[in-house]
Write a structure and sequence with these properties.
Elements lengths: L1 H14 L1 H29 L11 E10 L2 E5 L6 H8 L3 E9 L5 E3 L7 E3 L5 E4 L3 H4 L4 E4 L10 E5 H7 L12 E4 L2 E9 L12 E4 L7 H7 L11 E7 L5 H15 L8 E9 L21 H28 L5 H9 L4 H33 L16 H27 L3 H5 L2 H4 L5 H36 L9 E5 L7 H12 L4 E7 L10 E7 L4 E10 L4 H4 L4 E4 L10 E5 H6 L12 E5 L3 E9 L14 E4 L9 E6 L8 H16 L8 E2 H7 L2 H35 L1 H9 L4 H35 L10 H28 L2 H5 L3
Parallel strand pairs: 6-11, 8-10, 17-22, 19-21
Antiparallel strand pairs: 1-2, 1-12, 1-13, 3-6, 3-12, 4-5, 4-9, 7-10, 8-11, 9-10, 14-23, 14-24, 15-23, 16-17, 18-21, 19-22, 20-21
Helix pairs in contact: 1-10, 2-8, 2-10, 2-11, 2-20, 3-7, 8-11, 8-14, 8-20, 10-11, 14-20, 14-22, 14-23, 15-18, 20-23, 22-23
Subcellular location: Cell membrane
Pfam family, one: FtsX
Keywords: Cell membrane, Membrane, Transmembrane, Transmembrane helix
């Protein structure tokens, strides 16, 4: 029986090639997008799910409140781990890691000269508890002893193959690896996690190494309760009966006992537990390795919504076309029932046809996946490839998708078609009221739904693009064009080398001005401190943002000086410029009045003189509002390590900038010969602040294009069918004198009303969604009326063209051909 059903299904589909093709293409588009989105969602949702008892593992984090403004830090005080080990109950295990920033790694291979690996990421100090809390497969060495002694190191298998190619893991034990000044010997090799994980460390130096290294011991600050470093991360595993609130209470009791000022309302500090399952998705805190990407559950939900919408659109096409063809298959159904087929058998026959179409669409979609992955390359996280389709959960997803889409697309048409009664069929009553039946009304509802979804995507795409354009083209309060930044190498910079390099840069003919400092005026990296201003009547304590730059900084960026004077070389470390927002917050309407005032407790204990006031400029992305800010100059080499270079204008068709970068690189190689020359345009770095919005815009572009394409396929199919059903009516009207324009108007009138109805429905929905999305920005564009007008008219034009081609063709046909059989 099953074989017979599928054989008949294939014959029917082959007989209706055009409609089968439209259904397959529509479903393939929706399913292809769903597969790729499914891979992305599965990739992010499986991070670190494989760890034993992961629901009981937490990262200890630190929360701060500065005058009610919250700040979040994934690190802890250096003294906390030792205190927890001796004082906290209810824990089954603890682990401490301390990230070593970009060390140069030297590997000794026999008698050869050590091989250098520059500025390696993923190197940490780890204590003995790390490999007890997180289970790795050991290829050599033992978790019990590998990190027990100072100057031991455990490496992952991938890193081992890089350091010691061709060497057996067992033979690596005892090999020497030097991390800057830290000399270690290999004590173990572990296999890299095969599953997705935010634990991307690959070199684990024993934590006890600080006992033999004075510089490390100083960095760790093991007796300090005041400082909090993102490099120091602390993990705990709760006992089965422990609750997070109980552990948090014990942690904060220890903190207050050792640092009573942590309860200060103006600068409050608290420890908290962050679930390990939350780390990949919570962007309040940095990831475990701070450079790793975060996942975003709202983005994943948005992607799932897009996939669902595209699938619904494809299913709507299927339902519309199948119910529209109901009258053509009425006699087939009548004969089947007359010959003894039950309604259940008829339903199964039509579901078989749907299943064949869906299965074919899934096979095509899987074949299209490599091309779709290439198209979405910039949006897809690393680690996703076509090989991901072979994972068992993805295969189950494909099977479930095939079944669900088959039922969703085919069940209602099967119910409609199987309901025909043989007597009515043979009297031709099934054809006479085709347009007035429930299936006709359903087609209109489904068509309106298609237009609602498509227009929503169009409106969302236009609005997001408008906000990005606004953010990247608005006057930010400083010059951003033709400015590049170059940062000296982190571990090898010196003040003397930086000064020499700045001098060489200034001497280049293509360079207009050079400033030394830290970040550009607008940057994703923010630095802040607490400061106090006392005018004799009241004391103002606030957190202020900091920009580091020399006397050329505001001139290079064309930042307006509103009062006072610019910074001078003699002002280093004791004078600042403040922005207009900070001056107003201090209570000065006349900006000249703030010049000469002092702010105290700057960076804890400094007293800084205000020598000038600058105009407000955008310090971060437009998601953030303007905050109090100071600009200062410092001699600290790490705060004074970025060269800001304004290039002279380039002539039309000239190569001045090309020669400029050649000369800049030449000067760099003279001062830092062992390091790569890298630069970044400031305007590009500002555009990168809106990377998530740009990704959203790209996804919406694709979703919009696909939804419009699927909708147009459905419209084309309905237009072909409708004109085919009304071919004799068209012939009669032409014989009676109707013009082509009148006939086209008649055939498309309903379509215009459906588009208009969809526009009315989607308008408040799209406006509300746009309004809510724009609340993420402190400075945002307006929701213009033309966004909705452009979407509605654009959808109408596209729909009109799609169906109009077929209706014009029908209207121009010779009526003799359609009426000669009458």
């Amino acid at each position: 029986m099953f074989k017979n059903h599928f054989k008949i299904a294939i014959r029917v589909l082959m007989r209706q090639k055009l409609f089968t093709l439209i259904n397959v293409i529509g479903l393939s588009i929706g399913i292809s997008a769903s597969i790729v989105i499914g891979l992305i969602v599965y990739h992010d949702l499986t991070f670190d799910k494989f760890h034993k008892d992961v629901d009981r593992i937490y990262r200890v984090v630190t929360n701060f409140s500065f005058d009610g403004r919250l700040s979040y830090n994934p690190g802890v005080s250096g003294a906390l781990p030792a205190a927890v080990k001796s004082e906290v109950t209810g824990l089954e295990g603890i682990a401490t890691t301390y990230r070593i920033l970009l060390p140069d790694v030297f590997v000794t291979r026999g008698n050869e000269k050590p091989v250098k690996f520059k500025e390696q990421r993923g190197v940490v100090l780890a204590d003995e508890g790390y490999f007890k809390l997180f289970e790795y497969k050991w290829l050599s060495g033992s978790a019990k002893t590998a990190l027990h002694e100072p100057n031991q190191v455990v490496i992952t298998s991938k890193q081992a193959d890089i350091y010691f190619p061709g060497t057996a893991y067992a033979d690596m034990i005892g090999k020497t690896i030097i991390y800057d000044s830290i000399k270690t010997s290999v004590s173990g090799v572990v296999e890299n996690f095969k599953e997705n994980s935010d634990l991307t460390f690959h070199d684990f130096i024993s934590y006890n190494t600080h006992l033999t290294n004075a510089e490390l011991n100083q960095d760790l600050r093991l007796n300090n309760w005041g400082g909090t470093s993102v490099k120091e991360q602390f993990f705990v595993k709760l006992s089965p009966r422990s609750r997070p609130e109980q552990i948090e209470s014990q942690l904060n009791t220890i903190l207050v006992r050792n640092r009573p000022e942590a309860l200060n309302k103006e600068r409050k500090q608290q420890f908290a537990l962050q679930s390990f399952n939350d780390i990949h998705f919570n962007d309040r805190y940095l990831s475990i390795d701070t450079a790793d990407r975060h996942g975003s559950k709202p983005v994943l939900y948005g992607l799932l919504s897009i996939a669902a919408f595209l699938l619904v659109l494809a299913c709507i096409n299927f339902i519309n076309l199948n119910t529209a063809q109901a009258s053509q298959r009425a006699k087939e159904i009548g004969i089947r029932k007359t010959m003894g087929s039950s309604r259940r058998q008829v339903i199964f026959q039509f579901l078989s046809e749907t299943f064949v179409v869906t299965l074919l669409a899934v096979v095509i979609s899987v074949g299209l996946c490599p091309f779709v992955l290439q198209l979405f390359d910039g949006l897809i996280p690393q680690g996703i490839s076509i090989s991901s389709l072979t994972q068992a959960p993805i295969i189950v997803f494909l099977i479930a998708l095939t079944v669900v889409v088959s039922l969703l697309s085919g069940f209602y048409p099967a119910l409609i078609l199987s309901a025909y009664k043989p007597v009515a069929v043979f009297k031709d009553q099934s054809r006479s009221n085709t347009g007035k039946t429930r299936s006709g009304a359903l087609r209109r509802v489904l068509t309106v739904s298609q237009f609602v979804i498509a227009q929503f995507f169009i409106m969302a795409t236009i609005l997001v693009s408008k906000q990005i354009w606004y953010a990247t083209h608005k006057d930010l309060g400083f010059k951003k064009d033709a400015v590049v930044t170059i940062t000296s190498p982190f571990r090898h910079r010196t003040a003397q080398q930086n000064a020499l390099l700045a001098q060489k840069f200034r001497s280049l003919p293509q360079v207009e001005i050079v400033s030394m400092g830290h970040d550009a005026p607008s940057s994703e990296n923010t630095s802040s401190t607490e400061a106090t201003f006392n005018n004799g009547k009241k004391e103002l304590k606030t957190e202020v943002s900091m920009k580091i730059g020399d006397e050329n900084y505001i001139n290079l960026y064309h930042i307006k000086l509103l009062a006072g004077r610019n910074l001078q070389p003699a002002d280093t470390n004791h004078a600042v410029l403040v922005n207009q927002t900070y001056a107003r917050m201090m209570g000065f309407q006349d900006l000249n009045g703030v010049v000469g005032q002092h702010i105290d407790n700057f960076n804890g204990d400094q007293r800084m003189k205000i020598v000038g006031v600058v105009g407000d400029f955008q310090q971060e992305s437009m998601r953030s509002s303007l905050t109090p800010l100071v600009i200062l100059h410092t001699t600290d080499v790490n705060w004074n390590a970025t060269f800001h270079i304004a290039l002279k204008p380039q002539t039309a068709g000239g190569d001045e900038w090309q020669r400029a970068f050649t000369n800049l690189e030449g000067a760099w190689k003279q001062v830092y010969p062992g390091h790569d020359f890298e630069y970044e345009f400031v305007d590009r770095s500002i555009a990168n602040l809106y990377q998530s919005e740009q990704q959203t815009a790209s996804l919406l572009n694709w979703a919009t294009g696909l939804s419009v394409l699927i909708s147009c396929l459905g419209l084309l199919g309905l237009a072909i069918f409708t004109t085919g059903q009304r071919v004799k009516e068209i012939g009669v009207r032409k014989v009676l004198g109707a013009s082509i324009g009148q006939i086209v108007s008649l055939l498309t009138k309903e379509l215009v009303w459906l588009v208009a109805l969809a526009f009315v429905i989607v308008l408040p929905i799209a406006w509300y969604a746009a309004y809510q999305w724009l609340q993420n920005f402190a400075d945002r564009t307006v929701i213009s009326w033309w966004i909705f007008a452009l979407s509605g008219s654009g959808m109408l034009i596209v729909a009109f063209i799609t169906s109009g081609l077929q209706t014009v063709k029908a209207a121009m046909a010779n009526p003799v051909k359609s009426l000669r059989s009458e």
